[in-house]
């Protein structure tokens, strides 16, 4: 039964409070019992959903986590996304696997660059957005100003569902427009402990503002929201529990159940009998004791049963899925069955890659999971040359995860890694050492960017004859033009009209 599934992501600029909100949603959903407990089985080093060493050192999320919880008969699949812009590729791919998103905005800062970038990704896929203005218990900008910014910068209709009674030092609670109740701050830490007042007296200085807010914005319209044209706005403080319950209710009530997914010209309905899905993420070494490798599959249709055989599009022969995993925040559970909208973890040893379609009949390919041309290219130099084999294995693993792209030059033996942001390089070096016991340094590369070459085999062969020093193969064996500057790309494109030099490659 797919109508009771809600698969959603949380997007925000770093420091807007995303990890705290994730934790409080899980707390409200009964998936965890104490704040600060979002972690996998007993591993204290994985505090919250940020479990990699570098995440703990930096206090940021650089991987996507999946957490499932159930409340009032609805199964919520929450996909946490990297908050740092250097990991926008991983976030983009995660957003292909959700049906809606919560956009978290800091009440003092409004729309920040990374929020806007992620919103544009959602808009490309018409993903409906619920807005959560966080930290209203601190000094922040005027709520009307914040709403106008959302409306103007994102070209969205905004429909406030609640309103703060004062902000910062004057914060006296939140009025819920639907229930006409006020959530009040209580106790020495002034947090929400569950007290909701009906017929609450609202100080005159705030009453006029509230009337303006009620009358000045469009009513909530479910169809406009699900088309991505309108966003309902909730105010609150994740840290102090304000607005969290209302947010869960909004996801349950308004967020769409699993939506059809594009497979070329066709849309695959969640009602289809055949089990289908696609891999949007691969994560190695989630449990370093077992050197495991989990592929995350967004199930698109059908009822999956444990032990079922599915055909990965990249492989062509069926694999039996004996130990599928559902991710509960505090644990992993073996999944006996799963429905459209669920996220299943499939343990494997390199057979599954980001972008693979899995299906019973191998007749469809899901589309829309791109690789982007890297903005930074570096050569990898081993400190110990005897570890070449381990390095190759590590680079292949990490490129399958989508952490980096790896290019093998046609001439010369030094492999080149490509990333979108500098922080990915730090993660690469950190993980090479921690997980593969390989010490390496990164050196400048003679190339500035890379383009995938498309065209007939004859045209590619002819181009390769004269440009071999500038060519490499990617992990899939596809031909890549390594350019020293954007000018080189334009020149090559002009001189070779039969070829396309693409900045994206769809998996």
From TrEMBL:
InterPro entries: EF-G-like_DII, EFG_III/V, G_TR_CS, P-loop_NTPase, PrfC, RF3_C, RF3_dom_3_sf, RF3_GTP-bd. The lineage of its organism: Bacteria, Pseudomonadati, Pseudomonadota, Alphaproteobacteria, Sphingomonadales. This is Peptide chain release factor 3. PANTHER family: PEPTIDE CHAIN RELEASE FACTOR RF3. It holds the Pfam family GTP_EFTU. GTP binds at residues 12-19, 80-84, 134-137. Keywords: Cytoplasm, GTP-binding, Nucleotide-binding, Protein biosynthesis. Belongs to the TRAFAC class translation factor GTPase superfamily. Classic translation factor GTPase family. PrfC subfamily. It is found in: Cytoplasm. Increases the formation of ribosomal termination complexes and stimulates activities of RF-1 and RF-2. It binds guanine nucleotides and has strong preference for UGA stop codons. It may interact directly with the ribosome. The stimulation of RF-1 and RF-2 is significantly reduced by GTP and GDP, but not by GMP. It comes from the Bacteria. Residues 3-259 form the Tr-type G domain. HAMAP family: Rel_fac_3 (MF_00072).
